[in-house]
Amino acid sequence: MTRRRSPRTLSQLLSAALFAGLTALPATALAIDPDGAVVSATQQITSASNGVREIQGAIARSKGRERSAAQRIADAVLLMGSKDWDRAATTLNEIVEKYPNDPTAYPDAMSLLAETYFQSKQYLSARRVLLQITAKSGEARFASMQSKSLERLVDVALRLKDYRGLDEVFDAMNKLPPASVTSGLSYARAKGLIVKRDYAGAKTAIAAVDPKSEYAHQAGYLLGLVAVKEATPPPVPRAENEPPPPAPRSRYVAAIDLFRKVTQMSPDTPEHRQVIDMAWLAIGRLFYESDQFAQAVDAYNHIDRSSPEFGAMLFELGWVYVRLGDVERAQRALEILAVADPNSHNIADGSLLRADLMLRAGQFEKSLKVYEGVRATYDPMRARVDAFLGSTSDPAAYYDKLSKEQLEAFDNAAGLPPLALQWAREAEDGPAAFAVIDDVAQCRELIKESNDIIEKLSAIVSSSNRVRAFPELKAGEEKALGLLNRVALARLSLGRGMDEVDDSSLSGEIGQVRARRRSLEKRLAIVPVVDSDFQEREAQALKQWNGASQSVQRMNLQIDSLQAQINGLRRMIREAPQAGVVRDPASVMRFEQELMQHERDLAFYRKQTEGLRKMVTAGKMQVGFGDQRFVEDAQVRRAYRDALVREVELAFAGQGGADLAAYARRVAPLLRAGDAADQKIEGTLIELEREVARKTGEIQAALARETSLMVGYEIRLQELDGQARIVVGEVSMRNFGLVRDRLRNIVLRADVGITEEAWEVREEQMTRVKNLRVERAREDKTMREELEEVLDDSGEPEGDRK
Description:
single chain; 30 helices
């Protein structure tokens, strides 16, 4: 016989099944029968009480959240592997600051930090860290890093061209135990000794390099370089424009043999392949110097187009063919250079040489086209560099103009051409001078970014929702608030159940309490309970601020558009005479003054939009979890709980009738259980807040320290900037003068080529006219002779011929 379920049991089951969607329904659809309300409330209060363990787990995870030194080292290694040098340096600096006494992590972090700085071309910072490592040579934990650090110190000295500290590095190398002298160390010593011109010592160091090591190719190349240095006689004073005498064929035989040995090694890595290509390039140059051009061509042809040395090889190969008299092949090599390596520093000389060869071969139209192309390319560069140099003669002002920020502010027409910057950087003392400019600009940018981060963190930790700064604790608080809201919704179910028991209009105090309770139900029904509810609230808050952020961005775009118009107008004023439009000086001055005033206005607007951007950024950080909506949630929860408790008390006392009193007796234990659950959850919330306060205090102390350090860094940077301003400005001015002279020389050679082309065309035309006249005279003479022969044959008397 089948057992039938009672209607009461079926109602309870349906209530339990539908409660999961309770909070998603509007207030009018939340009606629930009294029995179902009791069952659902019981389940939710029990679930909330059991969820306290998850909150305590979040607190525990937060306390153990900080990654260990070994984990941070692993993070840094991964960042270095992806060539994210900035983040790697930040991580390693944190390890150095936090774990100075760690016997393993601190030395590893120092070594990796030095390598990070070196790979990111921050050579001064790399040298600072490397010197700190070598200064701790007496500590056992740094013993294994001395050899590699000394190698890198030599590399840094070569990159900076600062050889003053090499003697101290060599002394430190001599103090190392024999077991620490690696092939890399011997190779580094050899490089340092070569720049010190101690060639005998360099050969001794090279001999110590293991032929099976990764430095064998480089060591062989250095050995050939030493042989070249030893075979080259000191320079002899010569008259101006006097070519150097050709080298005897036997001078570089030993060096060529050493370089050939390098080319016979295995090209097993990209670095070794490049060393082999450099050896072939050196062989070709030595054969060229000793007038063995056929052998030079053979050496150059071993370098293929995938090599970084391919561009240099093509230019030099073109000169070899010129010396051989093979104009066609010389032109072909230079044409390939123009296509394969258009950014080569030899491209201008190569183009001019190609045009000269075309001119000599009688290809006048082609040579004129190349000459005019060179002039059209480099004459505007010369004019811009001239204008830049003529803008000031003060090295300090010149230094300011060369700062990275101001270079980016130039419009394309008035700014320095990239090629001129590249040549200025490569000129004498250029790398060191421009390194100072770049480093100062980078320091300013880093200090600015650091101050922005400090401002953002200060805004977060000083706001009411500072828990957002700690993701684990924020997740714990979300869980706790979700459980409190779950208990509050359980009370909401019980209140709706009371309405189902007696929905009549009650009078007296119970009627007033019920009205107050019902007025809170709509707001209470939308409190967040699960993760998706919290995420939706977060998205709503950010959406409002994103609209403000987009408005600020639109204003920035309008400012940029106006700046572009000003740049265009200024360019039109500057280039108007070239287009045949001449204005009186007063009008030009008035236009310039108006443009300057508009630029000052734009600078003011830009400053205002920057302030708005910072306000929007701060606002984004202070909304979302913990903002005013969550404060209102807490107020509604307390008000609804108080109203429901008072209504149950009054119903229990009989003010609402017998049915309402019976329902009140049933739900009173549940209300007490809900209060107990609230107390447990609020206790964990208090513990969470204590943990938030502790972490906030640590961050605030760190921010205070960092703020003080930033002020010190700014002062120190200003001091260094003032010291470098004059020296670096003088060097930069001189280098740009050299660039201007080089550009002038290129343009002058192009002009001379154009003139020569016109002269050659004239000479060819004159020669052609002369030849035509000679040919015509010859034809006239022939015709007269033939006529005389005809008349002779006719027997006409000579007198009659006249």
